[in-house]
Write a structure and sequence with these properties.
The complex is a heterodimer.
Chain A (H helix, E strand, L loop, with lengths): L2 H13 L1 H19 L7 H17 L7 H21 L4 H19 L5 H4 L5 E2 L3 H5 L8 E3 L8 H24 L1 H4 L3 H23 L3 E3 H25 L2 H11 L1 H6 L4 H27 L1 E2 L6 H14 L4 H26 L5 E3 L2 E4 L3 H21 L17
Chain B lengths: L1 H5 L5 H5 L4 H10 L6 E12 L2 E6 L4 E5 L5 E6 L8 E2 L6 E5 L15 E4 L8 E9 L8 H33 L6 H18 L4 H29 L4 H23 L15 E3 L2 E3 L1 H23 L1 H11 L1 H6 L4 H27 L5 H16 L4 H18 L11 H13 L13
Parallel strand pairs in B: 1-8
Antiparallel strand pairs in B: 1-2, 1-5, 3-4, 3-6, 6-7, 9-10
Helix pairs in contact in B: 4-8, 4-9, 4-11, 4-12, 4-13, 5-6, 5-7, 5-11, 5-12, 6-11, 8-9, 9-11, 12-13, 12-14, 13-14
The chains are: A mainly alpha, B alpha+beta.
């Protein structure tokens, strides 16, 4: 078994573009569901808004690709209004039913033969990201690594070292400031902080030099992770602002907020649209990277996978909405490469005369069956996920 | 497999209808394609003594191209008037009848060019009919089309009504919106396939077994999963996410076990349709419609007249009050899950007879069920019956008013949104559940 290959692809999955767009969508979903309590089951449609925004800019509107972001913004605001107006005054499950249904309508429309000249039908739209690729500072045919020791020139080594060291320190600080550690006093805090930083540096030394990406991927990853960081900081600040406190209060007790004279409806609507716009950016990143959009990549299951990734990381935590998608994709990629190694080239896995896997497509089904199982088990056994606080998981209020 | 076709009938009258020889011919043809294919058939129609007589026209050439005009294959109709062109995959194609291959004085009624898309392959071989000459059927008036669509719509509406009762009652008694309800429908269809096709049991027996197994499945889901969660005091929103996970799990298990292709129940598959005035309906579809109606009436009577039915409505109305009057709420909820699972399975069998079986079929119906249940009033069993029926009818009839077939479930979701805007409690729901 090629463990080296499995580990490398798992690590690439951990930092990869799928993790980026999932993280962007998960940050949005976190704002909607984790903080405000809005059960949005249509996040895939917001991703589609962004992806089709950039796709349609050249294909249908015939303008520069960059207008696509503006179109995406317009689409997601419209979609948010469409989903929110009928449901935000009603109970949570109505929003869930309507969002999942409207997302399905969006998918049906964009893949329909009838509107083929607008959305490109079942094949979608392709070849539109040349302008985006021209901006890339990375050489398309060269491979790029994330580790500082892969480079010879001193500036890159120092910059990358500083970046990763800074991240390690951040992890250390976060660990030291976490609730359980804080309760045990400053002595323990110092030890945990320094320990976590050193462990992170060691892990990075082992991990980073295994990662290599092509020039285009590297370009999207740079843009994507910067965007993730910006939105994460924005969400963190937002939730400490008066606005964010109202959102959390709505999650806890809508009537109490209403009795204080706040317009719950308007706050909910803003949260729904804001979260949708964040997911829309995820769609833009993904579409630009691939240079194509296909309607079936925005089906309802995508929403549920994003939900699973978010629950895995921890609802109502900023860290959770970033680390959750990274882990989600690492595990998905791991099971994929692991099972592919197990079945080998003939695609069959037999144990003791019983055929467990007949063909390669079954591997994908096993992976996603595991996703479903993971979502159930997480909700039952550890609803706060990896980083969440059980007390903040007040989903039961409504 | 043969005995499944030969044995037994749902109703004696189905026996009277011999499985059409034309269907078998076409079946023999079908074996010549490994993957998907398209089989156009050209017939000349004449009206004799008020009956339509059809004769095959051989020697007509058909060409299949991609939408971009690239040729995929061509074939000429044989003595049965059928041409068969094998296709590399289920995707978008244009089938064109070469008009210069038509004999003189023969003209084709309607279009000679047909666009196929991925979804139009209900079976592996897509059959298309081209007619020449006159007949009562070639030029359908709007009224006739409306009548035909209405009959189809009634059938779909009844199926949605059957499957929605469980969804609505589970909501009514526990407050839980079950996002895995579509998978219960698929379960029934896959089970009848297992019993009737794989194991070769007669369709009636297979259906009965599928319904029983569906009920057991509902019971397992309640006692094994949701009852313990309720006892732990898990919140409804969390439970709802558990049903989402359950749906993903089940759908992928189905895919793993059965693969993603459409499968068909062969029993009563190729019957000749009855001409009932403006509408044509096969005896099988007629039987399915009547059985659906019967089941719905029985469900309504059971809810209205029996002790358990009354108790169910009481729990659904107000669980605490019902509990205070001595009704065993947990038992009623268990009953609702069993009945819901069995009815969903029955709906799945009927839907499978109609449209074929695949692991995604139930989820595709889920949106229509949501629309139906909301229209009728979430939590009300009668509401689910009425709402589901209306939605099914609307979906089929909407295609007459300019809604493309591929978008025909859109009007249902428009109804969902409109109901929530105008009367969120639905037709028969209670106001206090809404806000």
């Amino acid at each position: 078994m090629n463990w080296d290959g499995i580990i490398n692809s798992t690590l690439r999955g951990f930092f990869g573009i799928d993790a980026v767009y999932f993280a962007l969508a998960a940050i949005g979903l976190n704002l909607q569901f984790g903080y405000t309590g809005l059960l949005n089951f249509g996040q895939a449609a917001f991703l589609a808004c962004g992806a089709y925004g950039v796709g349609m800019a050249t294909f249908y509107f015939g303008v520069s690709m960059w207008w696509g972001i503006a179109f995406g913004l317009g689409f997601s605001v419209l979609l948010g209004l469409l989903m929110g107006v009928p449901t935000l005054r009603l109970r949570a499950d109505y929003l869930a039913m309507v969002t999942i249904s409207i997302a399905e309508v969006v998918r049906l429309f964009v893949r329909s033969q009838t509107f083929r000249n607008v959305f490109g039908g079942a094949d979608g739209i392709s070849d539109f990201s040349a302008a985006y690729r021209r901006l890339s500072p990375f050489h398309p045919s060269r491979g790029y690594g994330l580790g500082p020791f892969q480079y010879d020139d001193a500036t890159r080594r120092i910059l990358l070292s500083l970046l990763w060291l800074g991240l390690a320190v951040l992890v250390g600080v976060a660990a030291a400031r976490s609730r359980r550690v804080r309760e045990r006093g400053p002595q323990v805090q110092r030890i945990v902080g320094v320990g976590a930083t050193i462990v992170t540096v060691l892990v990075m030394l082992w991990v980073l030099d295994r990662l290599r990406y092509s020039g285009y991927t590297m370009w999207t990853l740079t843009i994507g992770w910067i965007l993730v960081a910006v939105l994460a900081v924005f969400l963190w600040l937002l939730m400490r602002s008066p606005f964010g406190r109202v959102l959390k209060a709505i999650r806890e007790d809508e009537d109490a907020v209403r009795s204080l004279g706040k317009s719950v409806y308007s706050y909910k609507m803003q949260a729904l649209i804001m979260g949708g716009v964040m997911a829309m950016l995820g769609g833009v990143v993904r579409a630009l990277d691939r240079g194509s959009v296909q309607p079936d990549n925005y089906g309802r299951d995508v929403t549920f996978y994003i939900m699973t990734a978010l629950v895995l990381g921890g609802l109502a935590t900023v860290t959770g909405s970033i680390v959750g998608p990274m882990l989600f994709w690492a595990v998905l990629v791991f099971t994929d490469s692991f099972l592919n190694e197990v079945v080998g080239s003939d695609g069959v896995w037999e144990v003791g005369g019983i055929t467990l896997i007949e063909n390669v497509t079954q591997i994908g089904q096993i992976r996603f069956a595991l996703v479903g199982l993971a979502l159930m088990l997480l909700m039952i056994l550890r609803p706060q996920g990896l980083f969440g606080n059980r007390k903040e998981m007040a989903l039961d209020g409504r | 497999m043969l005995n499944a076709r030969r044995l037994l009938a749902l109703v004696p009258m189905a026996l009277a209808v011999v499985i059409g020889s034309s269907g078998q011919d076409a079946g023999a043809q079908a074996s010549t394609c490994e993957g998907p294919g398209v089989a156009p058939r050209v017939q000349m129609q004449t009206v004799e003594d008020g009956r339509t007589v059809r004769e095959p026209i051989p020697g007509i050439e058909f060409v299949v191209t991609t939408p971009d005009g690239e040729e995929i294959g061509r074939a000429t109709t044989d003595d049965t008037g059928v041409a068969l062109i094998c296709l590399p995959s289920r995707s978008d194609y244009v089938l064109t009848l070469q008009e210069d291959s038509l004999p003189e004085d023969v003209e084709i009624n309607g279009a000679t060019e047909v666009t196929l898309n991925e979804n139009s392959f209900a079976t592996n071989i897509r059959r298309l009919n081209f007619f020449s000459g006159e007949s009562g059927r070639t030029e359908l008036s709007f009224f006739e089309k409306l009548a035909q669509r209405t009959v189809d719509g009634i059938r779909l509406g009844l199926i949605i009504a059957i499957t929605s009762v469980g969804l609505s009652l589970i909501f009514g008694t526990t407050g839980l919106t079950n996002f895995a309800h579509g998978e219960l429908v698929t379960f029934g269809a896959l089970m009848v396939y297992l019993f009737s096709e794989t194991m070769g049991l007669p369709l009636t027996v297979g259906t009965a077994l599928a319904v029983i197994v569906g009920g057991i499945f509902g019971w397992v889901l309640d006692s094994g999963l949701f009852a313990p969660l309720r006892r732990r005091g898990m919140g409804l929103v969390s439970q709802m996410i558990v049903t989402v996970g359950l749906g993903i799990l089940l759908r992928n298990v189905y895919l793993f076990q059965f693969g993603g292709d459409f499968r068909f129940l062969r029993a009563y598959n190729s019957q000749r349709a009855w001409d009932l005035g403006p509408v044509a309906i096969t005896p099988r579809d007629f039987t399915v419609t009547m059985l659906s109606l019967l089941v719905l009436v029985l469900v309504a009577l059971a809810l209205q007249k029996t002790r358990l039915g009354k108790a169910t409505r009481a729990v659904s109305d107000n669980g605490e009050l019902a509990s205070a009057t001595g009704i065993n709420t947990a038992r009623i909820i268990r009953l609702v899950w069993i009945a819901g699972g069995a009815l969903a399975a029955l709906g799945g069998v009927f839907r499978g007879l109609d449209e074929g079986i695949n692991p995604d079929m139930g989820t595709a119906l889920l949106f229509l069920m949501f629309a139906g249940v909301t229209l009728g009033g979430l939590g009300s069993a009668y509401g689910a019956l009425v709402g589901g029926f209306v939605v099914g009818l609307l979906v089929e009839v909407s295609t007459l008013f300019g809604v493309p077939a591929e978008l025909k479930s859109v009007p249902a979701i428009v109804v969902l949104v409109l109901v929530l805007l105008l009367r969120p409690q639905g037709i028969l729901g209670q106001r206090q559940r809404v806000g």
